[in-house]
Amino acid sequence: MNKSNTIAIDMSKHLISIHDFSKEEILNVLSMASRFEENKNSAIFSDKVVASLFFEPSTRTRLSFETAANRLGARVIGFSDVGNTSVTKGETLKDTIKMVSNYADLIVIRHPLEGSARYASEVSSVPVINAGDGANQHPTQTLLDLYSILKTQGKLENLKINLVGDLKYGRTVHSLLQAMSHFSPKFRFTAPKELRMPEEYKEQLRVKGIEFEESENLEDGIEDMDIVYMTRVQRERFTDAIEYERVKNVYSLRRYMIENARPNMKILHPLPRINEIHQDVDCSDHAYYFDQAGNGVYTRMAIVTLLLGIKEF
Amino acid sequence: MAPMEKHLKVSAIKDGTVLDHIPANQLFKVIDILGLSKIPNQITFGTNLDSKLLGKKAIVKITDKYFEDSDINRIALIAPQAKINIIHNFEVVEKRILSTPSKIEGIAKCMNPACITNHQDVITSFITIATSPELKLLCRYCEKVTDEKNLKIISNQ
User: Fold this and answer.
1) CB distance A82 to A107 below 8 Å
2) What does the pLDDT average to over A95-123?
3) All residues at 6 or more sequence positions from B68 whose CB lies less than 8 Å from its CB, including other chains
């Protein structure tokens, strides 16, 4: 990882989609995150207020953003339950954002409607960070995934990555696939036929000449991998309850399955997990999902810093 | 007699714009998209006219009205084969060819039911990512693709 971060970053004023990032911009965020990990408390924004607007439930994302803002010395306002806000009176997203952008210096938003963060960025007078807009984008999760991969593997180039579980609806795997495409990976997609990777993403890989294979078998796809990225089958993304019931318990990673894994292999998971990783895996050296969640704080410190206008740290 | 009969179906105009070869079932959408119901100009139109190309076509003649390319291209979404003729003194002085705009604002509806544009008062915005063999529009907001068979035009009424 670079020790200096002197490349001027040309980030847009907001962070809405992972598509907004070039390879260089991604590397800059990761480099800055690494420096924040070395300097966990850097109160450089004691004069700033960050608004944390969570229109739907979240544990990790909200707490890590608020931790990041606090570690940077900023104060945090906001809500985590729309039940206590004027949204219940019918206030539009536009009006909420316009009002809050007069209170705060930066807005972090999670909202169930897809495209809500892009729209918020258009009506806000301060930078907006997308902390998840429905099934669409969750770019800070992707960046912390990349940071975790870089930290555990020492590189991002030429890695073998197995994406497992809900590859149809899972926004994290779609964004990770697109971001990793900058770094010549080889993918394996492990999913039941109902939850296969959509054709549009496979076509993007073909265009870029990136190799991938597909399988329904999890056990065969562990031995030669650098990263096994597990995902939860999310009930909230299904419109068909019967389809959900059929696939919800399709994979469960157990300790015996990873006995012959490469020493460097790490298991990632965006969390929360239900039963797709058995608890007997938790104490393995390959388990990295809780550290991965911790990396979210440093990555988000870097993003907040960049959007509040500091290009170097 | 045939040419005379053709002329009589929709009267000629002295000056203005003629939109020909509009699929008959898209006529009212064209009127809607171009906002023709709100302008004071004289407008004559015919529909369900026989057409070798389209089966049934519609034609619209607008007196003393000329459109910017950016306006007229909006109808390329629903009538890509339409012909635009500019008329001066009963003569066709210019033929314009439609091309699908690279950005489409406020005309099409996003097919994603979870998109913010289908829930709040947000003007839709798309990037045209393909025109053939099928029109494909990428939503600026939810990043989902709306294809031709799911394309719905937003009414201006």
Assistant:
1) no
2) 97
3) none
Q: Say how many domains are in chain A.
A: 2
Q: Do B143 and A92 touch (CB under 8 A)?
A: no
ipTM for this model: 0.86
A162 and A253 belong to one structural domain:
yes
Let me know whether A286 and A303 are in one domain: no
Q: Which of A60, A98, A118, A311 is catalytic?
A: A60
Average pLDDT over residues A28-47: 94
Hey, is the C-beta of A192 within 8 angstroms of any chain B C-beta? no
Regarding whether A154 and A287 lie in a shared domain, the answer is yes
CATH 2.30.30.20 for domain B103-153, yes or no, is: yes
CATH topology of domain B2-97: Alpha-Beta Plaits (3.30.70)
**Which site among A56, A98, A114 would you substitute to test the B interface, given the most B Cβ atoms closer than 10 Å to its Cβ?**
A114
For A284-301, write each residue's pLDDT tens digit: 999 999 999 999 999 999
Q: Provide, rounded to the nearest whole percent, the portion of chain B with pLDDT above 70.
A: 93
Domain boundaries of chain B, sorted by first residue: 2-97, 103-153
Site of tokens 């910017």? B68
Burial B17-56 (b: 16+ CB within 10 A, else e): bbbbbbbbebbbbbbbbbebeeeeeebbbebebebeebee
Length of chain B: 157
Q: List all residues of chain B from 42 to 101 with a beta carbon under 8 Å from chain A.
A: none
**pLDDT for the residue B156:** 56
Q: What percent of chain A has pLDDT over 70?
A: 95
Predicted TM-score (pTM) of the model is 0.85
